[in-house]
Every structure is written in structure tokens, then in C-alpha cells.
């Protein structure tokens, strides 16, 4: 049933939209990619887009680990913990974003036929991420806020921001040089910088599309006090994601998705994924990362409390001769899951 959006809801959305526009305008060029990458981006969209916070009607907790290019000494490893949830009893206990009864299959056609846009509501979240690559380590802790609003009977728009602190550290004891390196004479072993991100997320019963920027607050960073070598910068990252659900029959659904990534001056790159899900029990998928890897994925919705997914990337770049591939595993916990659903309703 279509509803009229209140003036207050429009006012809140306008304020948040102005903030996000200003954040995107503040982005300038940088030197290289710094943030970690994920093969299962469709299952942890919250890490790259704060607008996803509160999109489900339960508390979504995820823990993950990624081993990039296993077999290469000092190759990147990433671990993370995230949690996000909606705010408001009206949202949690009986609205258009809830199921009509406990355990209904979110892949069923009735969900699409009876779909209504979400009531205006808020979402909050937090994440802790650690990325280690050789002697370099960064740890990010951030909080997120999102506002969700129905813009028609079938479409929802979410706007979000996240902010926190990233600590960069260098273990100089792992560095060995044949001669004295001037950049290592006056080493800065640790430093903390503010972290800022913003995003938009448009979604409906069978699709989603998002745009986000991360690490968008311009910051200088260097691991030496030598002024000749301290002109480093944090890199601004852009992400664009989209996906669509195609029903094959009453039990099977296919979800193709794409993610575009850009951080200047690196060229635009993309990931293509597709998964086939059976009811709310398990799914299989495959992916392709441009000029980097192909991947296989599988996931199990163990219960209305736990989900587990795994992906393996076979390297196709020049590193394939020394890399044994990349591994990524994600454990999901669905807290306060009143309707006991076994897979995400909004993120497929």
C-alpha cells in the first residue's frame, strides 16, 4: 500500500543529501590504491557503502578474513568485524520491510508481488578492519549512519555517511637494505588519520544499485620525517555496485552483479559476479576481476542465526606463477531475527 512521505522525512533526507554532496565534492586525486578488495562484495556491502546500514530488519553481524595471493611472503591479509542495525520499533516489528510470517522464503515470488517500499527509518553501524601487507599495517575503526526512505511504492533510497580513525604503522625491523636508505633514517612507526566516507543506495524487491566514496578526506601520510620523502597521500576510492534478481522457478534464483572501482591515477577496474541460490538454504557463484582473477564461491545459510560463505580466487595476472590464489571466508550472525529468515532480504 502506497503511503505519503512526511515533510519531516523529506527534510532529514535533504540535509543528509547536502552533506554527502559536499563530501563527494571534497575528493581530489591521489596516487595509488590502498584499501583492501573483496570477492564477496555483494555479502558485505556495508564495508564499502555506509548507506547499507539498517537495510535489514535484524542486526547484521559479520566477521571475515581474506588471504590475498597465498604463497607469496608478505602478501596482504585482511580481517574485519562489522555490525549494523535499523532503529525504531515500527521498523523492527511490523512494516513493509518485514515478512508476513516467521520463516517465509525471501526468494519466493510472493515477496515481489506483495512488496511495499520501506517506512522511513534510521540505520547505524560500526566496523573494525585490519589490513596487513608485509611491514605495513593499517587498522580502521569507524561508525556509520544511514537514512532510508521510500521514494515510490517500489523504490527505496538510502543515504549514509561513515567516519572514524585509521592507524597506519610500519614495522621497520622487517626492512633490510644493502646500504643506508635515507627514507629509513627518521622512521615514523605509527600515525593516525581521520577516515571519512559517504554513499547512496537505491533498492527494490529485485534489484540494488549503490555509489560510494571511501577515504575521501584528503590527508598527507608518510613513514619518515625526512621532508624529501614525505609527500605521500591517502587515496580516494569510488565504488559503484548493482545487482538484479532473476527468478528461474519457484526454488531457484540467479543474481548477477557488478562492482566498478576507481582510485586515481589507477585505471577503472571492475568485478563481475553471478550466483544461483536454492530457496534459503545454499548458493553457488562465480566471479571475474578484470585482469586479476577468476573466483568460485559457495555459501550456506546454516540457520536463522548463522550464515557461512567462502570464495577462492585463481590469479590470472602476472602473479599467477608465484601465487596459490586468494581465500576469503565470511561468517554472518543474524541477531534479533524476529521473523527467523535464513538469508538477507534486501541484499539477496
Reconstruct the topology from this structure.
Blueprint: H1 7-25, E1 59-67, E2 77-87, H2 89-92, H3 109-113, E3 121-133, E4 136-150, E5 156-170, E6 190-203, E7 207-214, E8 237-244, E9 246-247, E10 252-262, E11 269-278, E12 282-289, E13 293-300, E14 306-315, E15 326-335
Antiparallel strand pairs: 1-2, 1-15, 2-3, 3-4, 4-5, 5-6, 6-7, 7-8, 8-10, 9-10, 10-11, 11-12, 12-13, 13-14, 14-15
Please explain how this structure is put together.
The chain has three helices and 15 strands. With 348 residues, it is mainly beta. The protein has one domain (7-335): Porin. Strand 4 and strand 5 (156-170) form a beta hairpin. Mean pLDDT is 81; it is low at 1-10, 24-32 and 93-103.
Task: Provide a quick synopsis of the model.
This protein is mainly beta. It contains 3 helices and 15 strands. 8% of the residues lie in helices and 44% in strands.
Features:
about 350 residues; mainly beta; Porin; 14-stranded antiparallel β-barrel; 3 helices; globular; disordered N terminus
